[in-house]
Amino acid sequence: MNVLSNLLNNATSKGIFSFHPKYKNLGLTHLSFADDLLIFCKGKLESVLGVTTVLDCFYEYSGLKLIAGKCEFFTAAISHNTLEAIISSTGFKQGSLSVCYLGVPLVTKKLTEKDCQSLINNITNRLHQWSSKNMPYAGRVELVKTVLYSIANYWCRQLVLPLSIIKKIEQLCSRFFWKGSDTKATGARVSWRKICNPKSKGGLGIKDIKTWNYASLIHLTRKLLAGKGSLWVAWIQINFIKNQDFWTMSEPHNLSWILKRILKMRCIASAVLLSEPHNLSWILKRILKMRCIASAVLLSSASNTTQIWNGIRPKNSKVMWHKLIWFSLHVPKYSIISWMLILDRLPTKDRLHRFKIISNADCIFCNDGIETRDHLFCNCRYTASIWTSLLLLSGFHMSFSSWSSMLEWASTSRNGKSLISTVLRLSWCGFNYIIWEERNRRIFTGKSRTTTEIINNVKMIVGIVLNNKSIDRNDSINLSLCSNWGIV
Fold first, then answer.
1. How far apart are CA 408 and CA 404, in angstroms?
2. Cα dist from 298 to 227, 294, 309, 389, whole Å
3. Residue 365's closest CA among 440, 445, 433?
4. pLDDT: is 9 or 245 the higher one?
5. How many other C-beta atoms can be found within 10 angstroms of the C-beta atom of residue 314?
6. Which pTM value belongs to this model?
7. In Å, what is the CA distance from 329 to each residue of 23, 62, 110, 287, 326?
8. Closest CA to 108 of 265, 266, 219, 259
9. What is the C-alpha separation between 105 and 117, in angstroms, rounded?
């Protein structure tokens, strides 16, 4: 492609074909990616024939021949006679916007739901591929973060997604997380808004697409202000901004929709930075408040989309327990069950009874109380004895009168990187998972394990994670922990 690039660039300097009027000052004749090629020239028959002459020359060098029937040309403000002449002389087909290039639609107007259908189809196809696999919540959340959101992010960085499309994407992600497929997520235990909080704020660290799309738009604005960063920025600077002040320039009549959106953001921000009119609707006031934040971010040291997103996303207070379940050696599937447990969103019998799904809400372990979160994981004689035994393995002789006191102690007593801190967090998350698993085993299969087997299962979890890790065994506490927990 370097040879073809040189041929096209040299052809314009020799007058074989003329630059497209919008690209002359930029000196741009073409864009190429893999086997895709876009060539820009003046809308006259002579220029189009000049381009085909260059392509024929390239064929002589490389043996790669242009297939006219597979090529399309796009025009604006060209007479019907000229169009007919180009078609008859070249055999090219006349195309019309919108078209898809590199996976995104090329449009000059506001993006519609129809334009975004390929994005929704891409995500839906992935869900259909994964729906046959029996994945735990931890696996699903990682696929949402790394695959589905990467697909959406590719669009967010270049286009302003319609709100209906953002809601549809979040709906698909929520369905997959809770149901493992594209089926209605009835009875979702935690709202998607809560899930999209950072882990330190009580969520699962999934980015809110709407705020991320907004941050991407601000990042584009920042690039325009900096006057560098991409060919797109250079083209905007040369053709529209020129030597004008970005904050005070008038809006050209021939701008694309996304550029108009960026300029409207600028105008509203500068208009209300010092005062806010009293006669605005609630929605517009909300937008204006966000624009003020955007102005502050643009003037800050934030240099990439992630930093901008961190600057504009809602600020919630940190939860005291996040380090209890999210730490360097955590096991994802145990941590997510513990996360639902802390939020009291596991389908315990008291919740099911409240929704009239079951009639008997007695604890499956002790039959001496209603099965609530607090009872099952703290006050039940059976599970409390198991947790007491696990604490003894770590050298703690204590019991707890309430779930809240146990959570507070576990969250605040050991937050460091010492071996005992890691063992306590691993054992607590493992205890939660094994107890919930044992509860479901007894209800749905009628099978059960002994107390000793359950304790050994938790010990095995801790041992597998910490085996062969670098541990200071000269420390007497560490040596005792390794011996009690079977860490080798």
1. 6
2. 14, 6, 11, 55
3. 440
4. 9
5. 10
6. 0.81
7. 54, 55, 46, 41, 8
8. 259
9. 10
Residue for token pair 């020239």:
41
Radius of gyration of the chain (CA): 31
Angle between helices 163-179 and 209-226 (to 10 degrees): 130
DSSP letter, residue 401: S
- DSSP 8-class letter at 23: T
The number of beta carbons lying within 10 Å of the beta carbon of residue 360 is 11
Q: Helices (DSSP H) in 300-418: which residue ranges?
A: 305-312, 322-325, 332-342, 349-354, 373-374, 381-393, 403-412
CB 12 within 8 A of CB 30: no
**Integer Cα distance of 4 and 160 in angstroms:** 34
In sequence order, what are the beta bridge partners of 100? 105
Which residue carries 């102005």 as its tokens?
295
DSSP one-letter string for 54-94:
HHHHHHHHH-----GGG-EE--SS--HHHHHHHHHHH-PEE
Q: How far is the C-alpha of 254 from the C-alpha of 9, rounded, in Å?
A: 27
DSSP bridge partners of 73 = 94
430, 462 in Cβ contact below 8 A?
A: yes
How far apart are alpha carbons 244 and 298 in whole angstroms?
19
Contacts made by residues 115-118, CB under 8 angstroms, sequence distance 24+: 116/155, 116/161, 116/162, 116/165
- As a residue count, the chain comes to 488
> Would residue 30 be called left, alpha or beta, if left means φ above 0 and alpha means ψ between -120 and 50 degrees?
beta
pLDDT confidence bin for 287, thresholds 50/70/90: very low
CA distance readout (Å), 30 to 38, 192, 263, 297, 374: 5, 43, 28, 35, 66
Tokens representing 410 are: 């576990």
- CA–CA dist 234, 250 (Å, integer): 19
| Pairing outcome for strands 72-73 and 93-94 | parallel
Peptide bond into 98 cis (omega under 30): yes
Looking only at the bridges linking them, the beta strands covering 36-39 and 99-101 are unpaired
Q: Which pLDDT score is estimated for 288?
A: 47
Closest C-alpha to 232, from 220, 247, 222, 245 = 220
Instruction: Tell me the per-residue pLDDT of 11-68, one tens digit each, with 9 for 90 and over.
Output: 999 999 999 988 888 899 998 887 788 999 999 999 999 999 999 999 888 888 888 8
Nearest partner of 335 among 141, 174, 176, judged by Cα: 141
